Amino acid sequence: MDRPRVLSGIQPTADSFHLGNYLGAVRQYVALQDTHEAFYFIADLHALTVAPKADELRRRSRVAAAQLFGAGLDPEKAAVFAQSHIREHSELAWILICQTGMGEAGRMTQFKDKSAKYGESSASVGLFTYPILQAADILIYQADQVPVGVDQKQHLELSRDLAQRFNSRYGQTFKVPNPYILKEVEKIGDLQDPTAKMSKTSSSPQGILDVLEDPASLRKKVMRAVTDTGSEVVADEENKPGVTNLLRIHSALSGVSVPDLEARFAGQGYGAFKKEVAEVIVEAFAPIRERTEKLLANEAELDRLLAAGAARARVVAQETMVKVRDRIGFIPTP
Questions:
Q1: Per-residue pLDDT tens digits for 108-127
Q2: HEC sequence for the chain
Q3: Which residues are the active-site residues?
Q4: Which domains are delineated in the chain?
Q5: Residue 308 has what pLDDT?
Q6: Is the model's pTM score more than 0.70?
């Protein structure tokens, strides 16, 4: 029996993935490559909505790719590639844009949230059509499943709607994708404001733990993390959000349950607890950082891996687009 096909992308909008990215997505991508036919891409087309500088986008795209391989993605198991290397993404996006209503696109939460925050006049047309490009990313690979968090289900629903609409108008062409709900990862909070989500866009530098960060810096941030009154190491979301956040981080990386950690640190205070949390983080990130730096030092090899992934992805994308062009009524490509 053929394995289900899974598709996901990650944006190259920072110099490193952070702990929340790693636990919420990257680590789970690695697990899925053993059970699915996996396609993962660096979403450099999507990154254009924030108008990056050319050298910054190129560098960050390679850093993101190197981290995916460094975290454990195997180029023999998963196709890892740059979105911009497959031109069919953009072609299908335009076709799907022409199938999408203005009101339908305007209801997407990302555009609504960002235009409300920064003003609609500052939001680009690219941001408005972003979910439709996302639909093209998914549909062009005939993905069975798309890894999503609960907060991303709306965008996948648009992909499903557009697939069904196109199939109804032009004949069966696209597989209608289903969500693959990622294993629930407890919310990883900002170290300086543990009631807020760890985020590149809203957290302070001291509140984020980056995968590629120097071990000494990681230790310092954990030791300076906001804790709470008292000295007991117990999970209490309301009264001890800082300690609860650190317990979650330790548990997620070490595999030790929170109740077992509470028992282990009973009567020891915050100092000993924070030191162990810091070492767990450093140990988890060290091999990823080492493999990532090795790949970044050999740019030609990294680009070769991406090219190999793109070659595999291109076969599938072109096969889909032959059908789409025929269904839509284009003159055959010479």
A1: 666 556 555 555 566 778 78
A2: CCCCEEEEEECCCCCCCEHHHHHHHHHHHHHHCCCCEEEEEECHHHHHHHCCCHHHHHHHHHHHHHHHHHHCCCCCCEEEEEHHHCCHHHHHHHHHHCCCCHHHHHCCHHHHHHHHHHCHHHCCHHHHHHHHHHHHHHHCCCCCEEEECHHHHHHHHHHHHHHHHHHHHHCCCCCCCEEEECCCCCCCECCCCCCCECCCCCCCHHHCCECCCCHHHHHHHHHCCCCCCCCCCCCECCCEHHHHHHHHHHHHHHCCCHHHHHHHCCCCHHHHHHHHHHHHHHHHHHHHHHHHHHHHCCHHHHHHHHHHHHHHHHHHHHHHHHHHHHHHCCCCCC
A3: 114, 197, 200
A4: 5-186+299-328 (3.40.50.620), 205-293 (1.10.240.10)
A5: 98
A6: yes
